[in-house]
Design brief:
Blueprint lengths: L14 H6 L49 E5 L5 H16 L3 E4 L2 H7 L4 H11 L2 E6 L1 H11 L3 H4 L3 H19 L7 E6 L16 E5 L3 H12 L2
Parallel strand pairs: 1-2, 1-3, 3-4, 4-5
Length: 226
C-alpha cells in the first residue's frame, strides 16, 4: 500500500491540465490506529458560535452562482467536533472549485426547502462525486439497519436522510458490480479512528481527513473532469 506525502493546500480547479493527465495516484486511505499520533483538532472559528446554525463554510444552504462540478456530502450528526470536521471538508471542496451540496436536515430547513426527498434525489444523481463521511454515529446507524433495527436508525429526520442516501448508494453499487468511482469514503483523524466502513463501501477509495485532503481533492478532480 502506498500513500502520498499530502498537505492541506488545496489546488484550484484546472480543467485543462486535468483533462490532459492520463493517470493519477491517490492515497489508499490508511486508517490510523489508536497508538498513532493524533492530528490537532480542527478549532471552532471564533465567528461561528454554533455549527450548524452558521453555515458559512458550506455552499449548499445559500444561493451561490457556481458552475463547478457538484459534490454531495452525506454525514451523521455525531458530535460538534465531527460537524466542524465536515464543515472544514465542505470548505476545502468549495475552495477547490466544486459546488458543494451538504445533506444537513437543519440547513435544508433554514433554507426553506419544501421537499427534502426531491432535493436529495436530484443532487445525488447530479453529483460528480459523493463523499460519505464515516463516523461512529454513521457506522452505528448502518449497523442497526443491517441488523434489522430500522426504528432506531430513523429516530431523527437527519438520520432518515443518511439512511436514504446509503440505500441509493447500495443500489448503484449493485448495478455497477460494486464499483463506483464517484463514491469516496472519508474517515476523520479526530473522530474516525479504528472504524470499520460498511461492507458495501469496501471497494471504494478511502481517504483520511485532514491529512489526505490534497489526495482526495485531486482524485475528485480526476473523476469530475473525465
Amino acid at each position: 500500500m502506498h500513500s502520498l506525502d499530502l498537505d492541506n493546500d488545496v489546488p484550484p480547479l484546472d480543467l485543462t491540465s486535468l483533462s490532459a493527465k492520463k493517470s493519477i495516484t491517490c492515497s489508499t486511505g490508511h486508517i490510523p490506529t489508536a497508538t498513532e499520533k493524533r492530528s490537532p483538532k480542527i478549532k471552532k472559528p471564533s465567528s461561528d458560535p454554533a455549527f450548524p446554525g452558521n453555515y458559512y463554510k458550506c455552499s449548499c444552504p445559500r444561493l451561490v452562482l457556481k458552475s463547478g462540478p457538484l459534490v454531495y456530502v452525506s454525514f451523521a450528526p455525531d458530535s460538534k467536533d465531527h460537524e466542524y470536521e465536515v464543515a472544514d471538508l465542505c470548505s476545502q471542496c468549495d475552495k477547490a472549485g466544486f459546488t458543494v451540496k451538504c445533506d444537513s436536515y437543519r440547513a435544508l430547513q433554514e433554507r426553506g426547502e419544501l421537499n427534502n426527498l426531491q432535493w436529495r434525489d436530484q443532487n445525488f444523481r447530479r453529483a460528480a462525486c459523493v463523499l460519505f463521511c464515516i463516523s461512529p454515529a454513521y457506522c452505528d446507524t448502518i449497523r442497526s439497519v443491517e441488523d434489522g433495527d430500522l426504528a432506531s436508525a430513523q429516530e431523527s429526520e437527519h438520520m432518515k436522510g443518511v439512511l436514504y442516501i446509503y440505500r441509493q448508494a447500495q443500489s448503484e453499487l449493485v448495478a455497477n458490480c460494486s464499483i463506483d468511482k464517484r463514491f469516496f469514503i472519508v474517515l476523520f483523524s479526530n473522530s474516525g479512528n479504528n472504524l470499520k466502513v460498511p461492507l458495501c463501501f469496501s471497494p471504494s477509495t478511502k481517504f483520511r481527513f485532514p491529512e489526505g485532503s490534497r489526495g482526495l481533492i485531486s482524485a475528485m478532480h480526476h473523476i469530475a473532469c473525465k
